[in-house]
Design a protein that fits this description.
It is a single chain. The two termini are 36 Å apart. The longest helix has 15 residues, at 23-37. The protein is 23% helix and 23% strand. The protein has helices spanning 23-37, 56-67, 83-89, 128-140, 159-162, 169-178, and strands spanning 2-6, 43-47, 73-76, 102-106, 109-113, 145-148, 183-187, 195-199, 202-206, 213-215, 225-227, 233-239, 242-248. It is globular and about 55 Å long.
Length: 271
């Protein structure tokens, strides 16, 4: 089973840039690259910050762009999104409480889209109603569950980044701990940098994102720092008993060289 995770699109009106990059063009490049390299993917999952300012027009353009794909796309929302505007365009993605949450079946288990959006904040939230929804969904899930959420539930230990992490991580973590035997992996975005770790014994990971990149500086206490690292998405491959997550840096513009394999005794030591 293969899933392509894209995150942090930050779409804008055509012609506008974010971080000096064109998010609309970068999404087109990401989709084209993923369709060429991974036509066997079961689904694309986009883990939030679909729009940079939460404009309805961004969601309308995104809906049109995804409609022509041969692979279905699942959507989560992030802190840069606007839930009301998003649901005006994608009303079918609301759960019974009006959150953007969804259960979808996979060939090797169940996928769950989680809503960590909160008003007037870049931090994430997972309230009691959302926790109750997740408990019910996990209880009903047949086989391993794969959770997709925007905000990071684990600390990065980068001070300005952790100010905007999931604030309800303790409540969310209680649900994860209760259903740990069913949860195979938690995927998130938000940080614009590759991350991996575990949360209550469950593996977690995130790729960089399809537009601008941030840079880890553990001495910086106030500002989030940007960089020119390449745009990326994640390729998730499930082959029992393994889950492999590879960050595909489709935005890399440098040379790709054929080098000697480390197991080849005839390789040139100077390479």
């Amino acid at each position: 089973m293969k899933i392509v995770q894209l995150t942090d699109l930050h779409l804008t009106r055509p012609g506008e840039t974010v971080g000096g990059r064109d998010p609309n063009a970068n999404l087109d490049r990401a989709l084209a690259h993923a369709l060429e390299q991974h036509p066997d993917a079961e689904t694309f999952v986009i883990t939030g910050d679909l729009s940079d300012r939460g404009d309805r027009g961004d969601y309308e353009r995104l809906k049109g762009r995804l409609a022509g794909l041969p692979i279905p796309a699942r959507l989560a929302i992030g802190n840069h999104d606007d839930r009301t505007a998003f649901l005006e365009v994608f009303p079918e993605l609301a759960d019974e409480d009006g959150h953007v949450q969804q259960v979808f079946e996979l060939s090797r288990g169940t996928g769950l889209i989680l809503d960590s959006w909160g008003p007037d904040s870049h931090a994430g939230f997972y309230c009691a109603r959302r926790c109750a929804w997740l408990c019910r969904a996990l209880a009903a899930a047949d086989g391993p569950a794969y959770l997709f959420i925007h905000h990071h539930p684990i600390p990065t230990h980068i001070v300005p980044m952790d100010r905007v992490m999931l604030r309800d991580a303790e409540a969310f973590g209680a649900v994860v701990a209760e259903h740990r035997s069913k949860i195979a992996h938690i995927f998130f975005g938000h940080c614009h940098m590759p991350l991996a770790g575990s949360f209550h014994g469950v593996p977690v990971s995130a790729p960089r994102g399809t537009n601008h990149a941030l840079f880890a500086d553990f001495l910086e206490k106030e500002r989030l720092l940007s960089s020119d690292l390449p745009e990326s998405y994640a390729v998730i491959t499930v082959e029992e008993p393994s889950v492999t997550v590879l960050m595909q840096e489709y935005g890399y513009q440098g040379e790709v060289r054929a080098g000697g394999a480390p197991y080849n005794p005839a390789r040139d030591r100077a390479q």
